[in-house]
Amino acid sequence: MNVAIYMRYSCDNQDSSSIEYQRNNLKEFCKRQEYIIVKEYIDEAVSGQKEERDAFQEMMSDARLKERIFDKIIVFTYSRFSRHPGHAFKYYLELEDLGIELISASEPLLNGTVKYTYLGFVFGSAYTDVKNVSMYAHAGMKAKADKGGFCGGTAPYGYDIVDEKYVINPTEAEAVRLIFKMYLDGRSYKSMADELNRNGYRTKNNGNFRKTSFYDILKQEKYIGTLVWDKRAAKTSTLKRNNSKHKPRSEQSLVAGGCPQIIPEDMFWEVQEELKRGRQGGRLGTGYHHYMLSGLRIMKCPNCGAYYTGLTKTNHGKIKKYYACPNHKYNGCPSKDIRADYLEKFVSAVISINTIKSSTYIALNKSIKKICGNDITINKIRGKEKAINNVMNAIQLSPSSLLAERLDVLEREKAELEAKLSKNTVTIAGDKAGIKEMRRSFARVLRESGDTEIRDLIKMIVQEIVIEEDRIDVVLSA
Question: What is the C-alpha end-to-end distance of the chain, expressed in Å?
């Protein structure tokens, strides 16, 4: 009788000597049964829960051959065959259909239907053992995390690990603070990467920053001193894990003060709202929701001192924008949300009235016309021209009606921008009505423009916005 032997050990408390022990016992068993071993299959340091084991799958492939080389498969114990009940029965029944018997050298040889009951118990017990070991290991890791200990993996950017504890890496921590500030200032990821590289900062792997380097950093809760462990969702019954899927926050291990703090809490939660708003905007098809005052850090909550952040609410299908204290949602602060459109109109009016006066009209007229759209419009025209050239080149290579329609749209949009540019070159009159129009245009730009220059201008003019229960005061810089 020709047989194959299958041997495996996992990486937990076992090593290659386990294979030799299994081999000796299997050879002795086959000698007693007068079996001829024609092939050995060995998986080293591989969990029995895994279905994709190289030697195991090779053995199953050989079993499926029309001219098979063995009639039985011998294992030291059934748990060596598999520690996953679903996988174990799946392949056991397949071997049975192929006419190949699976035998354990150290467990009873059973016949008839009772073997299925016995195998169910054996495979189930093996799976229970794995789960118990995992449970005990998880409990030990949780106890370590609760004391602020390092539980493996790679230290996040901004930290090093010393004596299994998180310690701040001073240079990386500087970069983290700069990253959060630049993000709230409205900088693009590419601009942020260029700034960091220009100043000599390096990634954890000693490489250059790229525009894809920031998402994990901006979501890293350890920066506010909260050690988060056991965040990822558990593996499925098929041992698959979706690394982007997280457990509910109530099931995660959150240890306040579990690691050194790098950035203020209000800044962190403000960034989370910005990130969330960006995703929601794309999902709703409305694009990014611009907030005139978000990220400028000039408007504090009167109850807890956190800086207000922008958020959106949907009511009867309509999206409305608000400013809210981040601690209202996360830590129960009683401050109420403030309608963004009302607040922004008020603040932009205060700025424009106090900035644009008849005494400063001549100097301001040129600047206001510029920021009201000329430079932006010129850049948009250049973008349209580039897009038109690209479409024309594509038409030459492969003419199509869709490309022709796209070209018509681009040319029409370019013409509209050129008409807008021509209109904007008209100088606003210096009389009372002209100054009023200038103030209105300036206020509109303050509310609607997300350009860094405009946001810097607002921050330069406004010292702070004081929120009280029955009033709002805009304090201008001297």
Answer: 98
